[in-house]
Write a structure and sequence with these properties.
8-stranded mixed β-sheet, 15 helices
C-alpha cells in the first residue's frame, strides 16, 4: 500500500528515482554485510505498488526510473508553502488555482542490468518525445511521452469519483497514481520495444530530504551558470563544486537557459546519479549506520517501487556495481516540431527500438575468418580511457561502419566523439593528441596497426580513419550490419554519452 502522508513522485528521475536506486543499493550492501534484522526489515518495507507484474530480482533486468511534475503528496494534498518555497516550486495558491505543476513524468531513465550486475547502461528518454500511447488515456491516443502518467491518472480519478462518490481522497489518489504508473511503464515499453521488470519513483520533497541526509552532492560544470529564475539554480564558477540539498534539486531541474533545454538537463541528471553513486562508495556512507538509517527512513516514506521487486535479492548481484560501471546515453531525436499546438520532439521509433535492443542485448560476436579480437599490445587504465575522446571517420566502403566502431569503443570505456565519413583510404590510420598516447596505442592494436602522434589533434583526442578493409574490432569483416552494434548518437542536440567512470562528468 502507498503510505498515507507521503508526497508524490516528481521531476528528474536521475536525480530523484536515481537517488531511490542509490539509496536502495546502499541499504542492500549493508544488509548482506551484516546489519541484519532492522536493515532487512526497513529495506523490505520499501515498495508499495501493484501497477505492474514484476520481473525477476536476480539476473538480467530492465528498470525504469521515473519522476512526476507534482506538488501534491501521494494522497493528493498540496505540499505546505514552506516546502514549496524551499524547493522553488511555486505556491499553494499557484498549485490550487493557477495550474502550477502537474503529473507529468518530466524525466524517465531506462536502465539495463545484465546478469551478474557488474555493469549497467541507461538511456534517458526526453520528456517531449512525441509518441503513440498503447491505449487511449483520458481521450488522448498520442502526445508527449511525459503525459501518459497524468492523463491516465486524471481518467482513473474521474472514473472512481463517479462510481464511488464517497470514497476517500486517499484512496482516489492511490488508484489514480497506480493507473499513472501502469500507463507510463506500458508507454515506455511500447516506445523502446523492451520489457520493463521493475520501476522506482520518488517525489520532489523526497529528493530534497534524501539530499539533506547525504549532505548535498558534488557536481562539475563546464562554465558558470547565470541565475535561472524557474529552478533557482546558479553557479558563480565552473569546475567541481559541492551543492547543498536545495541547489542539488535546482541543478537537476534546470532546463531554461541551457543550450539544448531538456536534453541538456538529461545530461545533468545522468552526471548527478554518477556523483551520488561515487559518494556512496567513497565517502563512508555505506559504513555509517546512522546515515544509512536516515536514508532508509526517507526511502520508506517517499520511494515507491513495484511490490514484487525483492530488493535484498537484487543486492546480491549489485554489490560490485560502482559509478565506474554505469554509463548513460540520451535517446536521439530527429528534430524539434510543433504538433497540436505543443513544442515536441520528433523521433524515429524503429531506430530507437533497434538502438535500445542492440545496446541492451548485443548479438554474440560472430566467428569468422578474422578470428577473435586481437589482444592489445598496450594497456590503458579505465581513467585514461574515460578521459580520451575518439573521433571515427569512415574511409572504407561499409555504410555505417564509423558509427559501429564508435559504439564498440564506447563499450570499452572511451568517450564518443565525431562520427563521419572521409576520403577513401587503403588502410586504417590511428592518430593521437597530447596525453592520449596510451589510448592511441590500445585502439591501434585493435586494428593491427600502429598509432601516430599528431600535433593537429586536440589534447586527449584519438582519431581513427578507417581503411578499406576495416571492420568492427572483434567482429568478422563479412558480418552483416544487423549483427553489429547500432551506432549510439554522438552528434546533434541529444549530445553524446555521459559515461560514469573514475570521476564525475562535467556538464553544461
Amino acid at each position: 500500500m502507498v503510505r498515507p502522508g507521503s508526497p508524490t513522485p516528481l521531476w528528474g528521475a536521475a536525480g530523484k528515482a536515481g537517488y531511490a536506486l542509490s539509496c536502495v543499493a546502499a541499504a542492500l550492501v549493508l544488509a548482506v554485510s551484516g546489519f541484519s534484522y532492522f536493515v532487512v526489515r526497513d529495506v523490505s518495507s520499501i515498495g508499495g505498488s501493484h501497477a505492474i507484474n514484476s520481473g525477476p530480482s536476480i539476473g538480467a533486468q530492465n528498470i525504469l526510473l521515473m519522476g512526476l511534475e507534482s506538488r501534491t503528496d501521494w494522497n493528493g494534498n498540496v505540499l505546505p508553502n514552506d516546502i514549496l518555497n524551499a524547493l522553488h516550486a511555486g505556491s499553494r495558491q499557484g498549485v490550487l488555482y493557477e495550474g502550477v505543476g502537474g503529473n507529468a513524468t518530466n524525466t524517465l531513465i531506462l536502465i539495463h542490468i545484465p546478469a551478474g550486475g557488474k555493469k549497467a547502461i541507461g538511456f534517458s528518454i526526453p520528456r517531449d518525445d512525441w509518441v503513440t500511447f498503447p491505449e487511449t488515456y483520458d481521450g488522448q491516443h498520442t502526445g508527449k511521452i511525459d503525459q501518459a502518467y497524468g492523463d491516465a491518472l486524471a481518467e482513473k480519478e474521474s472514473e472512481v469519483r463517479q462510481q464511488h462518490p464517497k470514497m476517500s481522497q486517499n484512496q482516489v489518489a492511490f488508484q489514480g497514481n497506480e493507473a499513472g504508473r501502469a500507463a507510463t511503464v506500458a508507454t515506455v515499453e511500447s516506445f523502446t520495444g523492451v520489457h520493463i521488470d521493475h520501476f522506482a519513483e520518488i517525489n520532489l520533497d523526497g529528493f530534497y530530504e534524501l539530499a539533506k541526509v547525504l549532505g548535498g552532492v558534488q557536481v562539475c560544470l563546464k562554465h558558470p551558470v547565470a541565475l535561472d529564475t524557474y529552478s533557482g539554480f546558479y553557479a558563480k564558477k565552473a569546475g567541481y563544486q559541492h551543492l547543498n540539498a536545495k541547489m542539488a534539486l535546482a541543478f537537476v531541474r534546470q532546463r531554461h537557459g541551457l543550450t539544448n533545454g531538456d536534453l541538456d538537463r538529461t545530461h545533468r541528471q545522468q552526471a548527478f546519479l554518477d556523483s551520488v553513486m561515487q559518494q556512496l562508495r567513497t565517502e563512508g556512507v555505506l559504513g555509517d549506520l546512522t546515515k544509512i538509517n536516515s536514508l532508509l527512513s526517507v526511502a520508506k516514506q517517499y520511494v515507491i517501487t513495484d511490490s514484487g521487486w525483492n530488493l535484498l535479492d537484487f543486492a546480491t548481484q549489485m554489490r560490485s556495481l560502482t559509478s565506474g560501471s554505469l554509463s548513460f546515453n540520451t535517446l536521439p531525436i530527429q528534430s524539434y516540431i510543433t504538433i497540436e499546438g505543443q513544442s515536441a520532439n520528433q523521433v524515429d521509433v524503429p531506430y530507437i527500438q533497434q538502438l535500445v535492443h542492440n545496446t541492451f542485448y548485443p548479438a554474440p560476436r560472430p566467428s569468422g575468418s578474422s578470428g577473435p579480437r586481437p589482444k592489445a599490445t598496450a594497456t590503458v587504465s579505465a581513467a585514461e580511457a574515460a578521459a580520451t575522446t575518439v573521433d571515427v571517420y569512415n574511409g572504407g566502403s561499409t555504410p555505417g561502419l564509423a558509427g559501429d566502431v564508435s559504439a564498440a569503443l564506447v563499450k570499452d570505456g572511451f568517450k564518443a566523439g565525431q562520427v563521419s565519413n572521409t576520403t577513401s583510404l587503403p588502410a586504417t590510420q590511428v592518430l593521437y593528441g597530447t596525453g592520449a598516447a596510451a589510448s592511441g596505442a590500445k585502439i591501434a592494436s585493435l586494428f593491427g596497426v600502429s598509432a601516430t602522434a599528431s600535433a593537429a589533434l586536440a589534447p586527449g583526442h584519438v582519431q581513427v580513419n578507417l581503411g578499406a578493409t576495416a571492420s568492427v574490432p572483434g567482429a568478422s569483416a563479412s558480418a552483416s550490419p544487423s549483427n553489429s552494434a547500432t551506432a549510439l548518437p554522438t552528434t546533434g542536440a541529444q549530445g553524446g554519452a555521459v559515461i560514469a567512470k573514475n570521476g564525475i562528468p562535467c556538464v553544461d
